[in-house]
């Protein structure tokens, strides 16, 4: 099928089946352009929690689809490619976290949304990069906290809040490999550009930033800033929405795309809607535990 027909078929199936397509900013621009909703991790969870569609197709990665299923247990949640994982979520295995928690009695666990349902079930609250600071601030200053799995985000929040949360030493293979030298090179080529950076980037990259934020925050910032040029230190998929929001501005990517996110294609999305598979399944007992810290996050956001 050609691209135009695939898009028409996706639209037909969506209406017929009362289905919605959710997409993260890191997905391919073709997917973003036809999605019912495009957002960052927090907005995707908030949107999933309130849609009345019967089927949700999550064009993102596994933890996002799992979070949708936990929030919408009665709905069918599909993911176009089950191989769409997340190296950051993989960097924190449930058994390892359980051991770490047992070694630190009295500590509460704050988990980034980029985690499995099993890790969420061990957590007091879930955060995203959009709300991490606010949620950490909601705990008394002397509360003993473990933050994971992203060490760079944890380090950033520690500096922002003046805390010393114990940090899980995990990371994202995309953001941790961005290079400070590449940013310096881009900055010398484009001296008027502002540097936008996701908090999953290492400290030496964060130190070069004019703005540190979640994908949604960086998008909003690029729109409201008087600058005309931006060096973008996060997955370059977000540049599609930045260009649409600010057509006159220039955006320069720092590094590579997330191969997991790019497994989402129009063809796989069409097949998922047609066959209503692969379906995301979360053990109901686990989901009943994992929803508590997710709902706590939504209430605090
Ligand atoms: P956001 O919450 O900023 O969308 O980030 C999600 C993510 O996976 C970053 O790598
Ligand atoms: Fe996970 Fe990194 Fe991809 Fe985000 S960019 S989904 S953290 S692997």
Q: What does the average pLDDT come to?
A: 97
Q: What sort of overall outline do the alpha carbons produce when their principal axes are compared?
A: globular
The largest sheet has its strands arranged as 2-1-3-4
What's the tally of helices? 15
Cofactors, ions and other ligands in the entry: 1,3-dihydroxyacetonephosphate, iron/sulfur cluster
Low-confidence stretches: none
| Rg calc | 19 Å
User: Which percent bin holds the helix content?
Assistant: 40-55%
Q: How can the largest sheet be summarized?
A: 4 strands, parallel
Computed structural class: alpha/beta
Order of helices and strands: HEHEHEHEHHEHEHEHEHEHEHEHEHH
**How much beta, percentage-wise?**
15-25%
Per DSSP E runs of 2 or more residues, the count of β-strands stands at: 12
Distance between the termini: 42 Å
Any overview of this molecule?
The chain has a 4-stranded parallel β-sheet with strand order 2-1-3-4, sandwiched between helices. A 4-stranded parallel β-sheet has the order 6-5-7-8. It has a 4-stranded parallel β-sheet with strand order 10-9-11-12, sandwiched between helices. The protein has 301 residues and is an alpha/beta fold. α1 runs parallel beside α14 (266-275), α3 runs parallel beside α4 (62-71) and α12 packs parallel to α13 (238-245). It has 15 helices and 12 strands. Helices cover 45% and strands 15% of the residues. The chain binds 1,3-dihydroxyacetonephosphate and iron/sulfur cluster. 1,3-dihydroxyacetonephosphate binds at residues 40-41, 114, 128-130, 172, 198, 200, 214-215.
